[in-house]
């Protein structure tokens, strides 16, 4: 039996031969020799099953997380992804992937609800877990199947937008660098990250265009952004401030937008329940109110599906007006002159005795 100690570790280690592969060497995680022997025997049996019977090797949750993060380092939203992973780690630490079943997922759901977080946040955590397990099953072949996941009901998509008067109050209260970025957002509808990372190489001032690269777009599809007069004015005001990035603060690229300065400005402007992302909602809502067709708005906003843009459809009524006109009384009273119809239905005079 290959059981040994290393100078750099208090635990016993095992060394197990594998036909056609390098020997397996790993820590037993225990300083107790009897427990280490049991660990050795169990792992040797697993290695035999993998080689002779084709049984998949047992993989730990931590292995899957590390590999997923390595492969998804440039994925939009990876910061939020890591945040949810940090919360889940104590609940999944040391578990084999095959041990993560419906009961485990349900415990994670119930723990989140007891903590008082929203259904939406709980669902995002479950989606992170599901994404890792699906990749482990379908791409890495570490799992034979993925358990079914229960998702909680979520409220309808939130659409919060400003009136033009509210927008002017907010812009007045913002510090200069945030005011420029907010004006640009209201003019283009670009997401926060795209505005922060916008480079001069992505702007064509002559053609009044900007481009968002596919790897920087949420839908993973390049976006061509037409720059209206307001957006162009903002761009012109930033010339010479930085050689690479369009928007800066004290000579450096902007890294944070939803700061104390932003929150204080929103409060001073007398605006409640408003986030930076709601500038994008405001841009889309103004377009809908001004009659921009939904398919055009979808392309301008870089949404992958029409469902995402339909949340603004109720703000545009122009496409319904011509149909509403078809139900006028003058059209329904077929074969009658409207004046004659009114005369025929007028009350009769009183009889006199």
From TrEMBL:
One of its GO terms (biological process) is DNA recombination. Residues 157-325 form the Tyr recombinase domain. PROSITE patterns: CB (PS51900), TYR_RECOMBINASE (PS51898). Keywords: DNA integration, DNA recombination, DNA-binding. CDD domains: INT_Rci_Hp1_C. Belongs to the 'phage' integrase family. This is Tyrosine-type recombinase/integrase. It comes from Solimonas terrae.
């Amino acid at each position: 039996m290959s059981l040994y100690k290393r100078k750099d570790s208090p635990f016993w280690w095992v060394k197990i031969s594998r036909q056609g592969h390098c020997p397996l060497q790993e820590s037993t995680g225990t300083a107790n020799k009897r427990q280490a022997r049991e660990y050795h025997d169990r792992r040797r049996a697993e290695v035999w099953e993998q080689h002779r019977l084709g049984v998949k090797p047992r993989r730990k949750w931590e292995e899957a997380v590390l590999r997923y993060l390595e492969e998804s380092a440039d994925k939009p939203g990876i910061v939020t992804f890591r945040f949810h992973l940090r919360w889940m780690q104590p609940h999944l630490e040391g578990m084999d992937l095959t041990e993560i079943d419906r009961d485990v997922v349900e415990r994670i759901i119930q723990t989140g609800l007891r903590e008082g977080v929203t259904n939406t946040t709980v669902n995002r955590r479950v989606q992170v877990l599901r994404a890792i397990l699906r990749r482990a099953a379908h791409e890495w072949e570490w799992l034979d199947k993925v358990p079914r996941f229960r998702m909680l009901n979520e409220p309808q998509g939130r659409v919060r937008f400003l009136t033009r008067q509210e927008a002017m109050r907010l812009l007045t209260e913002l510090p200069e660098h945030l005011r420029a970025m907010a004006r640009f957002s209201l003019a283009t509808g670009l997401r926060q990250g795209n505005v922060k990372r916008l480079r001069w190489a992505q702007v064509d001032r002559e053609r009044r265009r900007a481009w968002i690269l596919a790897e920087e777009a949420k839908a993973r599809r390049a976006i061509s952004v037409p720059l209206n007069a307001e957006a162009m004015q903002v761009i012109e005001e930033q010339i010479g401030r930085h050689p690479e990035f369009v928007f800066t603060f004290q000579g450096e690229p902007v890294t944070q937008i939803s700061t104390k300065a932003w929150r204080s400005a929103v409060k001073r402007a007398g605006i409640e329940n408003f986030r930076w992302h709601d500038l994008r909602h405001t841009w889309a809502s103004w377009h809908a109110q001004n009659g921009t067709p939904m398919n055009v708005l979808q392309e301008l906003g870089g949404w992958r599906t029409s469902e995402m843009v339909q949340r603004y459809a109720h703000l545009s009524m122009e496409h319904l007006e011509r149909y509403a006109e078809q139900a006028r009384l003058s059209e329904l009273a077929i074969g009658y002159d409207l004046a004659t119809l009114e005369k025929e239905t007028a009350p009769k005079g009183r009889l006199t005795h």
